[in-house]
User: Fold these one by one.
Assistant:
Number 1:
Amino acid sequence: MPPVPKGEWQLLMVTMNRKRLQIQSLWRGVVRRPAPKGFTLIEILVAIAIFSVSILGLGVGAVTVMKANKTSYLHTIATNLAQDRLEIMKAMTVGTLTACSTSSCDSPQPTFDGVAFTRKWAVAAGVPAAGFTQITVTVEWTDYAAQTLNVTAVLRQ
């Protein structure tokens, strides 16, 4: 066996394994461990934190979109209620138009999806000019906040 250069190898180990000669060389100094496979606990915790924040953001966005959809739906219903009352009043003669400024103008009170709507209307003769009558229908309701919708029409007397 050739001599081992000094400082390069510390030990040559010769063993007999199942009728074969096996030569193992041990590197001088600290034995190197193989590179770790997988993730560390800190990497997993950081990944979970990032994932949690992103899911939370999506959840908040979904709730906001759902609230906006419900508000738009109720606004559409309020617009239809105001237009309905306006069409009824436009079909009447100008002399028979009367105002209603109390919350009991409609009986029964219109309710959709558990939200009660209140309709009020005002009639102003001679507005915006002589020979005209202005009708303003106001619809009020409360969903996430108090809401008010005004629809105005002008009729010729």
Number 2:
Amino acid sequence: MTQPRFARQRSGREYLWPFLPPHELAVPSTTTITGKGVPKDALQFWAAKCVAECAYDRRRAWTNMDRGEAIDYLKRAPFRQRDKKAEVGDAVHSAIEAYLGNESELPLEKIERGYFEGALAFLVDNEVEVERAEATVFSRRHGYAGTADLFFRFGGDGSDLGRLVGDWKTAKAVYDETALQLVASARADFIADPDGVTEHAIPGDIEYGVTIRLTPDGGYEAVPFHLTDELFDIFLAAKVVAGRETVFRTIRQLPIAPRHQQAVKSEREEAREHKRKLKQTMIPTDMTDIDGNPIMFSVESEAA
């Protein structure tokens, strides 16, 4: 997956501003926040299906592996499929960005070309006026950042909606949680200039967002979302949940151990001390081993 501008990978994606140190901001991405902070119950069933399909469709690839190799191959099936889809999405996003920036057309595979043509159809059908594309946005107030695929206006009948924020998707469906990324982009404080220093204001009050699901046959599905205060509250709550690991790392810090732990520790220390005090004595017997050596046994007694 392509790393966005001003971003680095830690336990999740983190954005830096200014880009060169010293950094004023080092904040989690909107995708990391929604990924860690929003339950995705359907994912476990999708992952199970990926493994089952791999086990059946690719059985010749793993039946001659040993047990450990086969388990590792099968359990990684969901990640292989995820990464493959991410590569397609990255290629499509890059092609759209190049088109909107009047750059040279990028080479695309057949399926990628279909998605790209779907984006062009959306832009033409709705007389879209793009104000910014692939814009990196930051929120100082709330401590997050992300990439808005486009800030735009509809032409024709949709012109009264004002400025909107849009998100391209190449998934099989549009999920409501994508609205969280849209509202986060709309409520950010500034757009980061590619120079890594200059800041630009977010273009106006944005009340609506649109997720544009592109299809491999050159079509699209535009799903609008009302970007309400309540929706933004859910995003901020997800940010708190996503940051739970940081809290968990700091809570086991009592200045003294609880009493029950002290008791267990004392018992263990007493056992070790008792063992140190024991005197081991070797006593011969009348028996011998197969080599004729006398068999000895040891006896532990309290040392004098």
Number 3:
Amino acid sequence: MFSKILVAVGGAEDATETVPVVTGLAKAFDSKVLVVHMRERVVTAANFLIDSESRLKGAFADMGKPAASGMNTAPNKPPAPAQNLSIEILEPKAAKTGSNPVRVMVRDNAGKPVTGAEVQISLFMPQMGSMPPMTARAALKDAGNGIYIGQIDIPMAWTWQTTITVSRAGATLGATQTTITAR
């Protein structure tokens, strides 16, 4: 049984191109088997290909849609309240797969620490091909002076869409979106 796959081969000046290759057992008289030439470099580490493909798919999916204002994109929802907080990720600066310590600083508009709040961090990776979307969440604990700490498990190396939400008594005080890259 034969199957077709695409192989990325190195071209001039590290440019790559994908070429179709037939895999499987070939009979000696089969003349339609594509051979990768000895001087061509086959790409074997291709995280960048997956990352680029998923980013392109996301960009194409959003083409032609009206731009979202703020973080509230659901129809018939009131606009998000004005951001009255400064939310800064202090840690991790360089994340890894597995368990990572998280440290976040939350301050109000006057620069004063916000204490006694509920802080949630959420990581999101969109669907890629047949792999379903992935999420990771953690509740952070108030360590005092506007610092919130906790642990989050990052399942794989990726640049994760990150949302930090700060609330008190069920009311959202503010939120921010950024990215965390795990290697």
